[in-house]
Design brief:
The structure is a single chain. The chain is built from 15 helices and 23 strands. Residues 1-5 have low confidence and may be disordered. It is globular, with a radius of gyration of 25 Å. Helix 3 (89-100) packs across helix 4, helix 3 (89-100) packs antiparallel against helix 6 and helix 9 (271-283) crosses helix 10 (303-316). With 504 residues, the chain is of the alpha/beta class. It has 2 domains: 10-16 and 24-257 and 466-485, Aldehyde Dehydrogenase, Chain A, domain 1 (3-Layer(aba) Sandwich); 262-446, Aldehyde Dehydrogenase, Chain A, domain 2 (3-Layer(aba) Sandwich). Strands 14-17-18-13-12-20-21 form a 7-stranded mixed sheet, sandwiched between helices. Strands 9-8-7-10-11 form a 5-stranded parallel sheet, sandwiched between helices. The chain has a 3-stranded antiparallel sheet with strand order 5-6-23. Strand 3 and strand 4 form a beta hairpin.
Length: 504
């Protein structure tokens, strides 16, 4: 932990029932810049179960009034929220890079994603469509409508500090739910900025609540008897624990978890384009994306050429503080992540016996001495059965796997525990469409890397990546609403003929 004068560091608070309040624990934790651990961004409350109890109680008290607020009126507040986010984009971008480490361009994209999500989802306040259908009996009307689920607990990670909370928070609100957000402990300021913007937009007290801290408030939120839904983004192991806990209380649970994403590069691909896509797919956000291109599956005919071009480009990447406009790859989030990534690099070298083509070291001298910097790392001569080719590393490490046929490549992509994102580089439209059909992932790209998402399309994965739900798009409404079927009999009194016609 940094040795800066803590008395000069700004303190922030939880947001409960429309008030900024200290944690009932009276304890604090430091939000540290991963590029320079002597730089403390702020001090945040280390909350506990009592804080969650207060936040859930506030959400419960606000639930009926918010549910009864017409959806178009809820949407107007969210549109105002989008305007506030847009106005403050530059400030929020700088603060995000300082607390999370990603380069300014990526941080700006993160904030823009929250803006786009807010504008897009606000439009659903004038839709939230159900449907009508012919009834079986005469003089009867049948339809269905959406209704909010109730109190939603949102648990978010560090890698997209504003985009991912917005993907959960904004749809929950437009659907009429009240919310308790447990922020990522490494990026509490970005979540706080989002919630403060909600306050400025005029969202009523108790509708949105923010609790900071580590695992204790997260577990308390999952276990609380009054939370009806838990939406979680994070590791697959933690997601399974949450799913098991929610199952005991029959709660709705939405999970977005790990990935081991792959790019297929066919022998007819534009190699330079494929290298460029692989470069940013693998090393954007320092590889700390659930969609990161951590496997590059390259046809044997162009394997050597591809590897040479990739390694040359990777060696040229500028690693440094994300606040420097020249930086292309920032630090990883914390020491625990750094140790995990280095552990996998050692596995790749010593256990898997892959070829370390470049990188693999922690940077510790000069401007790097107080940060969590790892060289962008490429392994070649990798088998699809190696651990580095099957397990999520979540860092600036990618591996290049050779193949002979498209079916072989597709089998390699599908033969892992995850199924989030995949891609193929080819100039053959038949191969592209065949791959799109056969790749068992929630997202598939053609002639583009595995990263990136647009708010009007569903986001999510298969197998160990998720539990069948999707965020973004209109599909997210199915997480935060439940269906109610309505039958209206306007016959006054059923005639005997009508009764006889009914089959039960």
């Amino acid at each position: 932990m940094a040795n800066a004068n803590k008395t000069s560091v700004k303190k922030y608070h939880n947001y409960i029932n429309g008030e900024w309040v200290k944690s009932s624990s009276g304890e604090w934790f430091d939000n540290v810049n991963p590029a320079d651990t002597t730089d403390i961004v702020g001090r945040f409350p280390a909350s506990n179960g009592d804080d969650i109890n207060a936040a859930v109680a506030a959400a419960k008290n606000a639930a009926t009034r918010w549910r009864r607020t017409p959806a178009p009126k809820r949407a107007e507040l969210l549109f105002t929220l989008g305007e506030i986010l847009r106005k403050n984009k530059d400030e929020f971008t700088q603060q995000m890079t300082r607390e999370m480490g990603k380069v300014l361009k990526e941080a700006g994209g993160d904030v823009q994603e929250a803006i786009d999500c807010t504008y897009y989802t606000a439009g659903e306040g004038r839709r939230l469509h159900g449907f009508t259908t012919p009834a079986e009996m005469p003089n009867k009307f049948a339809m269905c409508v959406r209704q909010p689920v109730g109190i939603c607990g949102l648990i978010t990670p560090f890698n997209f500090p504003m985009a991912i909370p917005s993907w959960k928070l904004i749809p929950a609100l437009v659907c009429g739910n009240t919310v308790v957000l447990k922020s990522g402990e490494d990026v509490p300021l970005s979540s706080l900025n989002l919630i403060k913007a909600c306050e400025q937009a005029g969202i009523p007290k108790g509708v949105v609540n923010l609790v900071n801290g580590f695992s204790e408030p997260g577990a308390a939120l999952v276990d609380h008897k009054d939370t009806r839904l838990i939406s979680f983004t994070g590791s697959t192991n933690t997601g399974r624990i949450i799913a098991e806990a929610c199952a005991r209380d029959n709660k709705i649970v939405s999970l977005e978890m790990g990935g081991k994403n792959a790019i297929i590069v066919m022998d007819d691909a534009d190699v330079d384009n494929a290298v460029e896509g692989s470069l940013w797919g693998a090393f954007g956000t320092s590889g700390q994306r659930c969609t990161a291109s951590s496997r590059l599956i390259v046809h044997k005919k162009i394997y050597k050429k591809f590897c040479e071009k990739l390694v040359e480009k990777v060696k040229q990447l500028r690693v440094g503080n994300g606040l420097d406009a020249k930086t292309e790859v920032g630090p990883v989030i914390n020491e625990r992540a750094m140790d995990k990534i280095h552990g996998y690099i050692e596995i790749g070298k010593n256990h898997d016996k892959a070829t370390l083509a470049c990188g693999g070291n922690r940077l510790t001298k000069g401007a790097y001495k107080n940060g969590y910097f790892i060289e962008p790392t490429v392994f070649t001569n990798v088998s699809s059965k190696m651990r580095i080719a099957r397990e999520e590393i979540f860092g600036p490490v990618t591996c290049v796997i050779p193949f002979s046929t498209l079916d072989e490549a597709i089998n390699i992509v599908n033969d892992v525990a995850y199924g989030l994102s995949s891609a193929i580089y080819t100039q053959d439209v038949n191969q592209a469409f065949y791959a799109m059909q056969e790749l068992y992932t929630g997202i598939c790209y053609v002639n583009s890397a595995t990263i990136g998402a647009e708010v009007h399309l569903p986001f999510g994965g298969t197998k160990g990546t998720g539990n069948g739900h999707r965020e973004a798009g209109t599909q997210v409404l199915d997480i935060f609403t439940e269906w109610k079927s309505l039958y209206i009999d306007y016959s006054g009194k059923l005639q005997k003929a009508q009764i006889d016609a009914v089959e039960i």
